[in-house]
Amino acid sequence: MKKTIIAILLIASILIAGEDWQKSFDASFLMNLNNYSDNWAGEEASSFNWVLNGNGNFSKQMYSFLNTSNRVKLSFGQTTSKMKTDSVWGDAMKSTDVIDIESIEKVTLNWLVDPFIGLRAESQFLDESDTLKTCYVNPLKLTESFGIARIIYKKEKLEISSRLGAAIKQNINRNALIDTLRGLDITNDGGIEFITDALVPFKENVTYTGRLSLYKALFYSEADALIGLPNENDWKAVDAAFDNILAIKLGEYFAVNINIQALYDKEIDAKTRLKETVGVGINYKFL
């Protein structure tokens, strides 16, 4: 029930985007094909990959004392390859998969900072961790946060803002391996979260969107089960994420998207993980 209510609130905030809303939603389809004939000299492999992206922002000053801001980031793509000795292409494998929906409600009373509450849902379209069963929208991470926020700089469409507060997270896996069976697994943690968002239009056809987030967990529901293990304190390390998107429009319908993402979560890996994506394809602005 809790998950359903949160999902309804997030979706409703987006669907009511009517008059007086500042709204934008861009969709892009990017693909790349390298194909070699079977008599090509060398060991090169033919490859094909595609990515469908959707990025939206919806905000409105609901009342003189209340501002709502909603962000949607969706991405899904696959890749496949074929050696020159193969007669058919290999199975398509997932190359990117992101569902990220967030709603922030701020109390705007012309104070130095604005109190806020936030809801965020993060997941993926396909969970293929179990070769015998594909799950949809799994696992799911829900974050409820509250604290203070401030717009650092704003001029026309350019905006840089930060917020600091407490965050409580639920990690829900409907297809977790428990002993020898698959079932529901839920873990909880909470701590302090700092986020800075930047939207910088350099020109009419070039836009930078960036987010830096830091999270320090103060409690973890599985902490006792980790005592005595080499990774018993990994959950205490600061998690960091730096997401950068540079969108360059080429005419009305074509675009170049450059996405560089750096992630650090010691529970997953002791080193920083990097993802770099460059794509050229079709872009359409719905709003």
Structural account:
The protein has 287 residues and is mostly beta strands. It has one domain (2-38, 47-285): Beta Barrel (Outer membrane phospholipase (ompla), Chain C). It is 5% helix and 68% strand. The protein contains one helix and 14 strands, in the order H-E-E-E-E-E-E-E-E-E-E-E-E-E-E. The strands form two sheets. The chain has a twelve-stranded antiparallel barrel with strand order 1-2-3-4-5-8-9-10-11-12-13-14. A two-stranded antiparallel ribbon has the order 6-7. Strand 4 (93-107) and strand 5 form a beta hairpin. The longest helix is centred in the N-terminal third of the chain and has 14 residues, at 2-15. 15% of the residues are buried.
* Major sheet details: 12 strands, antiparallel, barrel
Number of strands: 14
- What gap, in angstroms, lies between the N and C termini? 32 Å
Low-confidence stretches: none
Number of domains: 1
Task: Give the neighbour order of strands across the main sheet.
Answer: 1-2-3-4-5-8-9-10-11-12-13-14
- Name the shape in a single word: globular
Which range best describes the helical content: under 10%, 10-25%, 25-40%, 40-55%, 55-70% or over 70%?
A: under 10%
Rg calc: 21 Å
Order of helices and strands: HEEEEEEEEEEEEEE
CATH topology: Outer membrane phospholipase (ompla), Chain C
Mean pLDDT, all residues? 87
Structural class: mainly beta
CATH architecture label? Beta Barrel
Annotation field: number of helices = 1
CATH class: Mainly Beta
Strand proportion, as a percent range, falls in over 45%
